[in-house]
Design goal:
The complex is a heterodimer.
Chain A (H helix, E strand, L loop, with lengths): L5 E12 L2 E13 L4 E5 L6 H8 L7 E6 L2 E2 L5 H7 L3 E4 L13 H11 L6 H14 L16 H13 L5 E5 L7 H18 L2 E6 L2 H7 L2 E6 L2 E7 H6 L4 H8 L50 E4 L2 E3 L7
Parallel strand pairs in A: 3-8, 3-9, 6-7, 7-8
Antiparallel strand pairs in A: 1-2, 1-4, 4-5, 9-10, 10-12, 11-12
Helix pairs in contact in A: 3-4, 3-5, 4-5, 5-6
Chain B lengths: L9 H4 L9 H10 L2 H18 L1 H4 L2 H6 L25 H37 L1 H16 L2 H12 L3 H28 L2 H8 L4 H9 L4 H24 L11 H8 L8 H27 L6
Helix pairs in contact in B: 2-14, 3-6, 3-14, 6-7, 6-9, 6-12, 7-9, 8-9, 9-12, 10-11, 12-13, 12-14, 13-14
The chains are: A alpha/beta, B mainly alpha.
Chain lengths: 317, 300
């Protein structure tokens, strides 16, 4: 196997708060092969968005490294990071707030082209903008419209075109469809998959929607309170979830059948506070199977079957 | 998506020839749809033209300076549209020449305050932390002293002249602008499109000027128009105290305050300059409101 496109090692991002350090991302390590999609799932506030932002360094990591194509992104200086941004881009969650309301569509897409001096002159830049609009399925007559004149799906297409403008290899997609209607969601997801094939893109797809993540991901990483608790190829994870939290998550997916009722795993208990969490399994407060041992030490991420990693004491034995 | 595969229609190929109007033109056209703003704009343009061509209309020396006691305190008539003052000088001529002083002091002082205060406020709001603290605490020091008192101190220290008056009024505008711009920047700074700008490699200066400031124009424009109005009346107040423009040079505030002595028998002497100040301020406010709406593409 060749060197993975992205290798994250012991990445940590802590935020200062009045009551202590918030462990938003706590010691996350993983690798991602070129051309694949890694789905990152977890509930609100589990640090999945922060992880994505820290990887492309929209936020400075507290510690740890991110190797992109062998280069340590977390150590780059300002200029180096600027160069690196050509390779790694981001699609944002909310298409209503991720576009500058004062810029027309074409200006928004043209911006990165102009900044990185990709096209030699204005005409070629305009042509490239039009091409990008074709690529993401935006009609050319929308060239001079403002984002507020368009619906959510079209706006998200602008966001995608803007991210694609620099021909990146890696895109962090931060819940790109969660603000959209279900019918539009499918369009955008299909578009993203087509683009992935066409441009050989690597995605890190952050979402809380499990059906979406199954649809698009090669591998899925489940996060809980800043830590990775389970990581496996998509089929394996859905067929055989090992971590009690993953089991609970998957049982929450609605089944479109009246007769085929599944057991719902209901969680009780309080979410452990992410502010200076104690050295115990962070899920132990809500876990059905928690033992005293779970409250004494932190479990490590272990490989239970090839490619399937779980962080739980139950599967250590 | 197979849109790139199907043949392009002529409409699609023409997209570059249907260039949109320039931003300026578009804003102007939108402004013209607002009747109140157009009225304000016409009035201001008229005033500015009067100020620029004042010398052609009324000779400064003969109409504004030389005394003509025989014609003192005449009520408005066909000969003297605005009447004459206690020295027999034509009030219309003095108002027209006075507009030069009042408008230029108002505009220059506020422009200076806007630029300096705006940059300070944008820096404070965008970077936050220690920078923010230093800038804003300095502004607090300035704001703690009443604007009028501050202007008096500066003029008294530097000596009474028109330049010093502008400096005093400009400095007293800086902290208010810094505060307004800072709070506006704070409300926009954490929007996702600012982060998106960073992700596509937009550098800090461009982020502030292209992404943040255009989105906080509303409060800034309103504040600017109000501020010009306030500065004109402050100029008047300082002139009244003898710290501004000196006799016989006409200035609206000075005209207003000298007319005060004759308000019982010759009310027009104070009323007309007062109405001029009021109309100018009203026109500025109307134009400012119109501009704020015209600059916002969402309110098309």
């Amino acid at each position: 196997m060749s060197e993975p496109l992205l290798r994250v090692e012991h990445l940590k991002k802590y935020f200062k708060s009045a009551r202590g350090m918030v462990h938003a991302v706590d010691d996350v390590s993983f690798t991602l092969e070129a051309g694949k999609t890694l789905g990152v799932v977890g509930e609100s506030g589990c640090g999945k968005s922060t992880l994505g932002r820290t990887i492309i360094r929209l936020q400075e990591p507290t510690s740890g490294s991110v190797f992109f194509d062998g280069k340590d992104v977390s150590k780059l200086n300002r200029q180096g990071l600027w160069e690196q941004r050509r390779q790694m881009q981001m699609i944002f969650q909310d298409p209503f707030s991720s576009l500058n309301p004062r810029m027309t569509i074409s200006q928004a897409i043209e911006e990165p082209l102009a900044l990185y001096k990709i096209c030699p002159d204005r005409t070629s830049r305009q042509k490239r903008v039009a091409e990008l609009m074709d690529t993401v399925g935006l009609a050319r007559r929308l060239y001079n419209t403002y984002p507020h004149e368009l619906d959510g799906g079209r706006r998200q297409r602008i966001g995608i075109a803007r991210a694609l403008a620099l021909n990146p290899r890696f895109i962090v997609c931060d819940e790109p469809v969660s603000a959209l209607d279900v019918s539009i969601q499918a369009q955008i997801l299909n578009l993203m998959q087509d683009l992935q094939k066409e441009f050989h893109l690597t995605y890190m797809f952050i979402t809380h929607d499990l059906s979406v993540v199954y649809h698009i991901s090669d591998e899925i990483m489940v996060m809980y309170l800043g830590q990775v608790i389970e990581k496996a190829p998509a089929e394996k994870l859905f067929a055989n979830p090992v971590h009690p939290y993953t089991q609970a998550l998957l049982s929450a997916i609605p089944v479109p059948s009246l007769h085929d009722r599944r057991e719902r795993v209901l969680m009780t208990g309080e979410l452990t506070s992410p502010i200076d969490p104690p050295a115990e399994c962070r899920f132990s407060n809500r876990c059905r199977f928690a033992t005293d041992h779970c409250r004494e030490a932190e479990p490590q991420l272990l490989e239970v079957e090839p490619g399937h990693f779980v962080s739980c004491f139950l599967c250590e034995r | 998506m197979n849109s790139s595969a199907r043949p392009a229609t002529s409409e699609e190929l023409d997209f570059l020839s249907v260039q949109k109007n320039s931003q300026f033109r578009e804003t102007f056209l939108r402004l013209c749809q607002n009747k109140a703003a157009v009225a304000g704009m016409i009035f201001l343009v008229f005033l500015i033209l009067l100020a620029v061509f004042a010398d052609l209309l009324f000779d400064y020396q003969t109409t504004c300076v030389d005394l003509n006691i025989a014609e003192r305190l005449q009520w408005p008539s066909a000969e003297h549209w605005f009447g004459t003052d206690q020295f027999g000088r034509d009030l219309l001529a003095r108002v027209v020449h006075g507009s030069r002083v009042s408008l230029s002091i108002g505009f220059i002082a506020v422009a200076f305050g806007l630029v300096v205060g705006g940059i300070l406020g944008a820096i404070a709001g965008f970077f936050g932390g220690a920078v923010d603290n230093v800038i804003m605490r300095l502004c607090d020091v300035f704001l703690a002293v009443p604007m009028m008192l501050m202007a008096i101190v500066i003029v008294a220290a530097l000596g009474a002249s028109m330049v010093n008056l502008v400096i005093a009024l400009a400095i007293s505008c800086v902290p208010t602008f810094a505060r307004i711009v800072r709070s506006a920047v704070l409300s926009v700074r954490d929007m996702e499109y600012v982060e998106a700008a960073r992700a596509i490699g937009v550098k800090t200066g461009r982020t502030i000027f292209r992404y943040i400031l255009p989105n906080c124009m509303g409060p800034i424009i309103v504040q600017t128009t109000l501020r010009i109005a306030a500065t004109i009346s402050n100029t008047a107040a300082l002139s009244f105290l003898g710290l501004g423009v000196k006799e016989p040079q006409p200035e609206w505030g000075a005209l207003l305050s000298s007319g005060r002595d004759f308000i019982r028998d010759s009310g027009y002497l104070a009323t007309i300059p007062g109405v001029c100040i009021m109309l100018t301020i009203l026109a500025l406010n109307l134009l400012g409101d119109g501009l704020r709406d015209a600059l916002d593409p969402r309110l098309k």
